[in-house]
Amino acid sequence: MNLKRLETFYWAAKLGSFTAAADRLNATQSTVSMRIQELEREFDAELFDRSQRAARVTPLGRELIQYAEQILQLAAEMRDHIGAAESMPGFLRVGVAEVISITWLPRLVKEIHRRYPKLQLELEEALTRDLVEKLEQGYLDLVLAPGRVEGHHFTSQPLGTLRFAWMSSPALSLGDGELTPKDLQKCSVIALAKESYHHTLIEDWFSLGDARCHRIYTCKGLGVAASLAQSGLGVTLLPVRCFHKELASGQLKILNATPPFPAIEFTATCASDSFQPLARSVAQLAYEASDFENIPLRSQAEPAAEHHDRY
Amino acid sequence: MNLKRLETFYWAAKLGSFTAAADRLNATQSTVSMRIQELEREFDAELFDRSQRAARVTPLGRELIQYAEQILQLAAEMRDHIGAAESMPGFLRVGVAEVISITWLPRLVKEIHRRYPKLQLELEEALTRDLVEKLEQGYLDLVLAPGRVEGHHFTSQPLGTLRFAWMSSPALSLGDGELTPKDLQKCSVIALAKESYHHTLIEDWFSLGDARCHRIYTCKGLGVAASLAQSGLGVTLLPVRCFHKELASGQLKILNATPPFPAIEFTATCASDSFQPLARSVAQLAYEASDFENIPLRSQAEPAAEHHDRY
DNA sequence: CATTCTTACGTACTGCGTAAGAATG
DNA sequence: CATTCTTACGCAGTACGTAAGAATG
Predict the structure, then answer these.
(1) Does the residue B270 lie in any domain?
(2) Is residue A43 over pLDDT 70?
(3) How many C-beta neighbours within 10 Å does residue A268 have?
(4) Which terminus of chain B faces fewer neighbouring Cβ atoms within 10 Å, N or C?
(5) Domain total for chain A?
């Protein structure tokens, strides 16, 4: 009996595809196919129904999943408890939101490498929505992103909060008075892709003030958004601490918008039943590496005291 | 991660010796040593303390035993539930008492081979006491012997009962009247080794009648005992059904001893937590293969109705 | 016709046993 | 000095990836 075979079966069954399992396991599909065939020969039983193009788990295979899950879970726990941290091998797939990757991600990566020198990191930067989806499908072990993932299947670790503010080029001269959504809806707004958390935040803010932005540009990253805003194309929503330099030099200015933007909470989320116990340990490392503020979320609406940003 | 490594560690830890584990696992001690070293490298932790001649488990190793036990248990269960009976591989070590090996053991062996063609049987005939000891130490998976093994760690399956009777050569002419222990203690008694169940039974019978046999010969098997008795050397205790031929031909006769011998219960016993789930299945096969009588044990003292013996 | 699984084949590696070595009580 | 674990070495079987094949929707 071989744990690798069992793990391969587990993922093939769970992901519903040999190809997906191969991807998840850093192997080729031919290898996955072989491993499962070996398992079937060993048990002398059909685990997958291959009559259609996509292999589907048989009822017996479904029973096997239960055992596989328990065994792999135990094995993961065992490695976590018995193995020295430095000797932890394997892969960890971490999905990160852009803001994190441009702030403290490098520090986290260094820290991970220090603590788990044998661990292979696979970083993926994408929109929060896609990251969460991949987490749910088991393609990612850990997601560092804004918001929380609902459901009991996941364990979330807060990473602190980040303040966003409306910014634009001073050249836009929108005045120094309070700017409501209805005021801003006349401007062009620069946001990330429609599916992004960023975009959702912006739409929510406008609808809170019974407004709707009419001209909206979308781009791929906050850096691009900022440079578009600098050029006077429109207003955009940016994390304050990442653009100190531009604010100081007068390339960007913070608009006196109302209602003020609530601080956005970031969390590290992993599957509760992950076979990768390191996911939780790395979530903790992420908390330690994070330099996001720690604003209690109970009163998000009130303006947070100015904090000494390190970037 | 490798289950074989884990199993090797488990047995080395449990048996307290690499050599013993090697024996138990059908491997060489060099292989056991290697597997454990690999495990230690994998965890980057010391599992055994080799400062003395015999390797002793470290505290960390003791923790690992818990995990290993759970995982191996689950894996065994999985194989039992998922695997087809015909495909069950591996070894099964069965200890049998002599009476069984000269009655229905061949039938059982054939049946096992029919049901589990890939299973390697290792049969061991020995005194009940030694068999039980080996079972307790984990050297045997299953024991077919008289009596019951006390303790919760074991699961016993009744196999039926066997009647024994005092026999001797008719030439001894002990008369037709009832023979009490006090009568028989004058004769030479032929028994198996002092440590045997047989020997204990005989001593118990005598002490029940406040007697003690003075001249006692011991020999290695029931066949030898019977042939010694036939030659007129003394009386002995034999299972009735195994010596029909000798009784019919007048080479042996049953003595009218009192109190009559209770029927002896035989059981199949295996460790409750055995990683060999087949042990229990084979115990069931043994029950089916057994043609020992099924006398309810509540009234062992009363003479059982004559049963049609098949041998 | 793109996708999904299977098969064939060559290579690299891992795991095992034999045998010899070192240490211990 | 016998027993117990470790090390060295060579062989054999296994596992993997590449690449090509077959089937399905």
Answers:
(1) yes
(2) yes
(3) 26
(4) C
(5) 3
